[in-house]
Amino acid sequence: MTHRADLGTLRSFLAVYRSGGVAKAADTLGLSQPAVSRHVKALEHCRIGLSPELTEALLQDELDLAVVTKIEGAPTRSLYLRHLCDEEFVLIGRPGEPSYGGPRDARPFVGYSRAMPMARRYFRSCWDTLPPEPALTIADMRAAVAAIRAGAGLGVVPRYLAQAGLDAGDLAILH
């Protein structure tokens, strides 16, 4: 595969992930559904994991490519690193709710894992503290956004997952 084809494959994968389906991704990218499906199929045997684990797999020649969120401590002389994109996190809740009041705010949180790594990063950046324990944990980020939309609590999510709800007025940014 050429470098240009590799990027096209990654773009297709990201579009499918963000839109939730091959048909929507194909429309977004201006490609046919079979083309997007072929791109995603070309990525089979990919691995999902934490950044340090994926970096180590690259160094051990177990992977050819990794998309990671954190590169601190990565051996830059051994790896070719390329910035793909910045991901914006937003603290969301239902419309009409008051703005989040900081760590003393006792409203429940929804997380996609007990550790809530996105919320940890967000809270550390905004208040230099840890987020509250999640009252509800849902292993799928889209389902977590749906639970927040239904009133289960607040959550920190990537903006692109909340954007449709924000545009429709079903969600609001609370900080």
Tell me the layout of helices and strands:
Blueprint: H1 3-19, H2 22-29, H3 33-42, H4 51-59, E1 89-93, E2 110-111, H5 117-127, E3 136-137, H6 141-149, E4 155-158, H7 159-168, E5 172-173
Parallel strand pairs: 2-3
Antiparallel strand pairs: 1-4, 1-5
Explain what this protein looks like in three dimensions:
The protein is mostly helical. 42% of the residues lie in helices and 9% in strands. The strands form 2 sheets. Strands 4-1-5 form a 3-stranded antiparallel beta sheet, with helices on both faces. It has a two-stranded parallel ribbon with strand order 2-3. The longest helix is centred in the first third of the chain and has 17 residues, at 3-19.
Estimate the strand proportion: 5-15%
Tell me the radius of gyration.
18 Å
Helix content: 40-55%
Which spans of ≥5 residues are poorly predicted at pLDDT below 50? none
**Overall geometric form:** globular
Number of helices: 7
Distance between the termini: 43 Å
pLDDT averaged residue by residue? 88
| Main β sheet profile | 3 strands, antiparallel
Q: Give the structural class.
A: mainly alpha
In N-to-C order, the SSE pattern is HHHHEEHEHEHE
Strand order of the largest sheet: 4-1-5
By DSSP, the count of extended strands is 5
Q: What are its keywords?
A:
175 residues; mainly alpha; globular
In short:
The protein is mainly α. Helices cover 42% and strands 9% of the residues. Helix 1 crosses helix 2, helix 1 (3-19) crosses helix 3 and helix 2 crosses helix 3 (33-42).
